[in-house]
Amino acid sequence: MPTKTSIQNIGQFLGQSVTLQGWLYNKRSSGKIVFLQLRDGTGTIQCVAVKAELPEEVFQICQSLKQEASLRVTGEVKEDERAQNGYELTVQSVELLHQSDDYPISLKEHGVDFLLDHRHLWIRTPRQRAILKIRSEVLQAMTLFFSENGFTRVDPPILTPTSCEGTSELFHTQYFDEDAYLTQSGQMYMEAAAMALGKVYSMGPTFRAEKSKTRRHLIEFWMIEPEMAFVDHDENMRIQEQFVSYIVQHVLKHCAIELKTVGRDISILQNVQPPFPRMTYDEAIKWLNDNNYEIAWGEDFGAPHETALAAQFDRPVFIERYPTAIKAFYMQPDPDRPEVALCADLLAPEGYGEIIGGSERIHDFALLEKRFEEHQLPKEDYDWYLDLRRYGSVVHSGFGIGLERTVAWICGLEHVREAAAFPRMLYRLKP
């Protein structure tokens, strides 16, 4: 009996008969030969059906197959230097499992709204499959980095009683007889976990009820949030650049075919090695004004500012020490200059903007209590968070990295929506 295998492992069976199971991506015929492009989720391979070598009924099945029909193909594995994976299959038998009539996404151009309405089918195409494979490998690389560097995974709740960032951009829900919100960050819970386990991280969905339609924003997205006890601002940035470099080099190693499929220039990614350049907020403001971007000290950067700043470098750049007034209440002020915070944003090159936001957290009880008063936050809702400063407080830092933005940058995508299997955007909750 032929061995059942997958396309990604086909090279192990050169000269042997194997059975593949998958779907027909495309078909072309020269009359006496039918070329079947078979995909199985692990890759794509050409299966060559020669009329003179097959029973008539088998060849007729090959001719009748329609796009996305499911089938089982048995054949001999042969080398093919022109093929993406270096192999093709000479067909010996074909079993039609299910015919696919009137498949809506034909091999032609379609509008974005049409493709998003049919996202459940769009993800079958080679480009979308490659992006999702890269996303998976990015998550794998993150997990490996944390495992190799002594981090423990802790999963924070998705339903929370308060806002982490102190904003109103939250999705409200009713939690029995009290108000609750979909989380916009697990950071505070990670800080608590860091006081128990030292170095921790979380991976999971977060939600921002921002009415934004830019190419960088999703309503639901994944955040990876490490928190580290006994780590200051400078060490926090060193860990971030090691982390991002590790991810990119992992993808280069494990996703060569997928990066080629999405058309990514990998020479740009090969430069992503530490150390990353650094600019202070002050230096960034001066550079922007010297280069005809009018912006006052104390204003936050917009997309054009971030793009211009990052364009100076061939790898991500840290912008650090932003004004305290425009950053979250929990960020530690610089002891030598309290009007700026010990924080940094990591900007990706090529116009992808901020992929990481991080800071040293306030560890002094009195200062954090003062911040609650300044931001008019209800102390009773955050009393447990203050406990972390009451009982054995230490210097600690953390950061959050957006998965979809990171994947979009690594893949060179025009819009972050392609980096999620089923993106949730303003006015789109389907499918």
Automatic annotation (TrEMBL):
Keyword vocabulary terms for this entry: Aminoacyl-tRNA synthetase, ATP-binding, Cytoplasm, Ligase, Nucleotide-binding, Protein biosynthesis
SUPFAM superfamilies named in the record: Class II aaRS and biotin synthetases, Nucleic acid-binding proteins
Record-level GO cellular component terms: cytoplasm
Taxonomy, superkingdom: Bacteria
Gene behind the chain: asnS
Reactions accelerated catalytically: tRNA(Asn) + L-asparagine + ATP = L-asparaginyl-tRNA(Asn) + AMP + diphosphate + H(+)
NCBIfam families in the cross-refs: asnS, PRK03932.1, PRK05159.1
Enzyme category, top tier: ligase
GO biological process, one term: asparaginyl-tRNA aminoacylation
Domain (Aminoacyl-transfer RNA synthetases class-II family profile) ranges: 132-431
E.C. designation(s): 6.1.1.22
Coiled coil: none
Location in or out of the cell: Cytoplasm
Name under which the protein is recorded: Asparagine--tRNA ligase
Oligomeric and partner information: Homodimer.
PROSITE patterns assigned to the protein according to its UniProt record, in alphabetical order: AA_TRNA_LIGASE_II
Pfam families: tRNA-synt_2, tRNA_anti-codon
Record-level Gene Ontology MF annotations: asparagine-tRNA ligase activity; ATP binding; catalytic activity, acting on a protein; nucleic acid binding; transferase activity
Similarity remark: Belongs to the class-II aminoacyl-tRNA synthetase family.
